[in-house]
Amino acid sequence: MKLLGRLLLVACALYLAGLAVLFVRQRDLMYPRNPVRADIASANLPGAMEVPLTAADGERLVAWLVPPRAGKPVLLFFHGNAGNFGRSIRQARFRALTEDGTGLFAVNYRGYGGSTGSPTEEGIHLDARAAYGEAAERFGAARLVGYGESLGTGVVLQLAAEVPLSAVILEAPYLSTAAVAQGVYPYVPIRLVMLDQFRSEAVIGRVRAPLLVLHGERDGVIPFRQGQALYEMANPPKRFIRFPAGHHEDLPAQGSVPEVRRFLADAASGGVAGAESRTVE
Q1: HEC string of 235-259?
Q2: Facing residues of 146 across strands?
Q3: Which residues does the UniProt record annotate as the domain AB hydrolase-1 (predicted)?
Q4: Number of C-beta neighbours around residue 203 at 10 A
Q5: Comparing C-alpha atoms, which of 21, 257, 16, 268 is closest to residue 142?
Q6: Segment holding 66, helix H or strand E
Q7: Cis omega before residue 237 (within 30°)?
Q8: How far apart are CA 154 and CA 177, in angstroms?
Q9: H helices within the chain, ranges in order?
Q10: Which string of DSSP letters, residue by residue, matches 27-50?
Q11: Do residues 60 and 89 touch, judged by C-beta distance below 8 A?
Q12: Which residues, 6+ apart, have CB-to-CB distance to 260 below 8 Å?
């Protein structure tokens, strides 16, 4: 009996030690960033330029701008949690989204891609507001479409709940980052110890702009069911596109870009109505 008690004490000590390590290192795990400034000249984005920004707390940010053609919208883009703008898969997404003349304004969060500081949920929201302010001043809020990828879906939803956007696009969204983390660490009281929870489920009801949700059914990072559940919580007009063969980062290869263009055209003409759902094979 004494041996069993000692084993339980050791197990508890090890659990608490592991929990302490997770708590201390959680932001390093959540934001696997590359702080190096990516070379915009090698991205093969016609007309692209860097735009310096300053967040409300003084952090200096690096944004990429691809100017729109006449009559085209501007995607205010918020990236996922990994790497920087030098990632080939991210640059390919930027090229695909802008090759028809659609504009792009994408900000490197603090700590990413040459931006100063270290990422936190509060800080990233400040970065989003700085990007919005600059883009709205250049192009007008009526031309801005918020686009969030993975982690960025929670960023753009919070922004869309605060400021006017002509439409919102979510690629691989979550209910909250806490819900995602709970699936990775099922025996950890995530909601008690996680600092940055990006609770999209709590803010999406305040978003009134036309909404497009894109999600792959084989997403191994953010479960498809979370994106679907978030869509169900959203206000109309809204559109949900599922990709049965889609994983977390390969939706452009599955046909997401034509769906984005169709949605942008429909949103501009008032053609998004009610709740629509479609599967793209």
Answers
A1: CCCEEEEEECCCCCCCHHHHCHHHH
A2: 76, 168
A3: 73-173
A4: 17
A5: 268
A6: strand 60-66
A7: yes
A8: 8
A9: 2-30, 88-98, 121-139, 151-160, 177-184, 190-193, 200-203, 224-233, 251-254, 256-269
A10: HHHH--B--SPP-GGGG--TT-EE
A11: no
A12: 97, 169, 212, 214
Q: Contact 138/109 with Cβ under 8 angstroms? A: no
Superfamily of domain 31-279: Alpha/Beta hydrolase fold, catalytic domain (3.40.50.1820)
Mean local confidence (pLDDT), 22-37: 92
Token reading at 222: 């953010």
Tens of pLDDT, residue by residue over 163-210, are 999 999 999 999 999 999 999 989 889 999 999 999 999 999 999 999
Q: What angle do CA 146, 147, 151 make, to 5 degrees?
A: 120
Q: How far is CA 177 from the centre of its chain?
A: 11
Contact status, residue 178 vs residue 191, Cβ threshold 8 Å = yes
Residues 6+ apart with CB under 8 A from 63: 50, 51, 52, 53, 105, 106, 107, 108, 131, 134
Q: Which two tokens stand for residue 226?
A: 């979370």
Q: What is the mean pLDDT of residues 81-108?
A: 96
CA 228 to CA 173: how far, in whole Å?
Answer: 9
Domain residue extents for the chain: 31-279
In Å, how far are 33, 34, 36, 251 from 85, measured between CA atoms? 10, 9, 9, 18
- Work out the average pLDDT over 239-265: 97
Give ∠ CA 96-100-105 in degrees, rounded to 5: 65
Tell me: the pLDDT tens digits for 201-235? 999 999 999 999 999 999 999 999 999 999 999 99
